[in-house]
Specification:
It is a single chain. The protein folds into two domains: about 25 residues; about 60 residues, Orthogonal Bundle (434 Repressor (Amino-terminal Domain)). The protein is mostly helical and about 100 residues long.
Amino acid sequence: MDNSFDSIKQGLEEAIQFAEGKDVGAKVFKPTEIDVKALRKKIKMTQVEFAAAFGISIGTLRHWERRDRTPRGPALVLLNLVNKDPETILSVLHNK
């Protein structure tokens, strides 16, 4: 029981230090920003095809392409994967 408490305490202290901007050795993953329009053209899809293939609403896709909004979170991760290997991602998503 003591080891669990110490581990949780250490983790919380490190989280606080990280939040304060101190280097605690935490690994932070920040996906690369994506030019969605360029990506869509690279894989030769229309807006409708691209939105349907990756589960994105056409309205959201258009906002991303106009750069009114930018993809964030899981959407940005997915787009980075598509950028690296579109054939594999399409295959996985559509069981091909």
